[in-house]
## 1
Amino acid sequence: AQSVTQLGSHVSVSEGALVLLRCNYSSSVPPYLFWYVQYPNQGLQLLLKYTSAATLVKGINGFEAEFKTRETSFHLTKPSAHMSDAAEYFCAVSQNTGFQKLVFGTGTRLLVSP
Amino acid sequence: SQTIHQWPATLVQPVGSPLSLECTVEGTSNPNLYWYRQAAGRGLQLLFYSVGIGQISSEVPQNLSASRPQDRQFILSSKKLLLSDSGFYLCAWSVPTGSNSPLHFGNGTRLTVT
């Protein structure tokens, strides 16, 4: 079965610094991968998705992620952090069951300091 | 455009009391519907999913049940709540075809069982 692992439950950066949130996947077939963001007491919002087209995927709010087969990774990056980026981020993989069934990582909380 | 509504936003219930959380989707037909639970520090756990009216699949054995009485309505229930049922419950929908379509989440219900 497909799974994802997010390294680091918390990541702290300064405003203006590079954001790097790590996600590694395990899948026996080419995966569909997603990044979601969750602000406090809200649902999850889709940031971006990889569906076997371009390996570099651009999302909303200046985020992007690169799919790397050899490293089995799908890390999320943003060149310059903003205070409003402080939130929890989830990586997810589709189970490829013929309909959408996502398995989520445990999440990484991004803290942004001034 | 499609929208998803979840209510109530917060709920405090005593142990042993019943539960009913409701979720409705607008602007789409025959969506796949999902209930997830988010416990602190544990990511998201898929509880139930449904591909059509009256069709419910349970992912984990538990004290909860789900029903889909109408195409765009999904209900999460319990006859007697346990302390361990506390958590953040998220409803989501996706288009009915394809493993590469994203999930769209409601704003969640914070349930506290006392």
## 2
Amino acid sequence: EAQVTQNPRYLITVTGKKLTVTCSQNMNHEYMSWYRQDPGLGLRQIYYSMNVEVTDKGDVPEGYKVSRKEKRNFPLILESPSPNQTSLYFCASSSQGTGTYQETQYFGPGTRLLVL
Amino acid sequence: AQKVTQAQTEISVVEKEDVTLDCVYETRDTTYYLFWYKQPPSGELVFLIRRNSFDEQNEISGRYSWNFQKSTSSFNFTITASQVVDSAVYFCALTHTGGTSYGKLTFGQGTILTVHP
């Protein structure tokens, strides 16, 4: 089954304790992205990657790191989490379009993070 | 800058009623893509439809239909004969097609649809 998976689905942690949220897709997609969803602020892009070893910042990258060492995986790293990073996080992936052509992004199930 | 506006924050209907969710967008791109996603109470984001800026044909899929009007920058979504299972938050989104922020989805704030039995 074609899918985007995220782990963990739920996480409670404390301020400053490094954590990684994993994202994996089995569709051989080039493009992957992370979003966070917050009440009143909606969905905002954190980072994206157009292919292996190619990553770039989205709208709200502060406090996050990413890496893309393999095509299927795009982990989100919070080096020193703070309470304002409490959110619902989504990973998404799509085939890479050419020129101005855009493929549809499919989302993982989400990770609910609470930072105390 | 791109912007998507879903003016209806919440809509409440009774089962079997038709309901239209409005979406208005702003973009300077000449080529762009519009999407609708559904977020049920379980929280995942489910893709419903994609439209590119060159295709203004309306689309129907079962009880769902979409009306794309470039002249008014609108991409409205209608559910015919609504059902309780349609209760969800619905997001309209617009994507960048090049340059910086390639592929970034700009989402509207979402419309909470509640269908009562």
## 3
Amino acid sequence: NAGVTQTPKFQVLKTGQSMTLQCAQDMNHNSMYWYRQDPGMGLRLIYYSASEGTTDKGEVPNGYNVSRLNKREFSLRLESAAPSQTSVYFCASSDTPGQGFLSNQPQHFGDGTRLSIL
Amino acid sequence: AQSVTQLGSHVSVSEGALVLLRCNYSSSVPPYLFWYVQYPNQGLQLLLKYTTGATLVKGINGFEAEFKKSETSFHLTKPSAHMSDAAEYFCAVSNFGSSNTGKLIFGQGTTLQVKP
């Protein structure tokens, strides 16, 4: 069971460089998410995609773009990396019931990409 | 707006002692609640969840949590801590309107240290 796969696992960039973080899930989930995790700040949602073909901003979208390539894949792009974007990035996916007000489905996480920007 | 507060960013217990990690939420509707665990250099894993039914929920690795609506709490407990329980723990609430998005609101996390 692969679950959610993120690549690469580690990356070092220079300020101003661009990069795309890749994420793929094999659980046929509708929704996918990108988070960043920083010490003392928990998880912060960058972007999410509720279904194939749709994307929406989360809590901290500035400096990032996303693409929901198909149902399996959701990529995160840094167009011009800044030191403030040094973080651990997590991709997650979940099924969505589409009924009622709340989802009872948990999110499934990848192992993260550790990104350092010098 | 819904929110989650985890009381105590760091909790330290001795091996064999009771583990209690606190989580309080605010929500305008009865929420769905989750606890996740994150081991070093790994992603988050689901420990347990409360949706409907029994308010005492049992999860993996001997953890359980009780939903108390009157106290707006969902504290995580384990009777006897093991060294392998050392990790970061996150409480999360299902966001209003999440049936179509699956969005969760996460607490800030609590790091559990287990001393030998």
## 4
Amino acid sequence: RKEVEQDPGPFNVPEGATVAFNCTYSNSASQSFFWYRQDCRKEPKLLMSVYSSGNEDGRFTAQLNRASQYISLLIRDSKLSDSATYLCVVFTGGGNKLTFGTGTQLKVEL
Amino acid sequence: EAQVTQNPRYLITVTGKKLTVTCSQNMNHEYMSWYRQDPGLGLRQIYYSMNVEVTDKGDVPEGYKVSRKEKRNFPLILESPSPNQTSLYFCASSLSPQGMDTQYFGPGTRLTVL
């Protein structure tokens, strides 16, 4: 089983739609969680950290479910500019290890 | 402008010819890492450094070397490149340990080894 798993997609959605991605992780000792965005083989950039209580940043909402070991990202009112690959990232302190998922591709269409 | 720079951005080389990819950051970050990204495998850490002269292996260190003689620079060295090292390479830096802070990535180096 992969340490961090994501559905690769692509998710093709119309502009204005709401879309959600999930990411599962295998190590229950994982401590920190992030969503990064990567445009077409460019460098990844932090989208948001994921907190235990859930957090929101504009149209983006991230949630963590420790019991089921998954994190989610919800994008409301999708824009064309949201088209990108979204990387789930998990940090495990014991091994000082930052593990990246393979990413979920989102395509927002007119 | 705060940034991480990498050079070269693109490189085609032949098997066995030593090469160095440079990485430099101007944010006074203590933590720096190298990753490679391959289709279907995601980003995998090659090496990371917690400070000057302090480096440690990541998940895929075989065939690579690094050095951290100055805080701002973290070059990646391939002593004898092989075709399986053809990949997209990213350098990253952060102010705090990697699980606690934003990773700032360089623009990437696309390496092809023939």
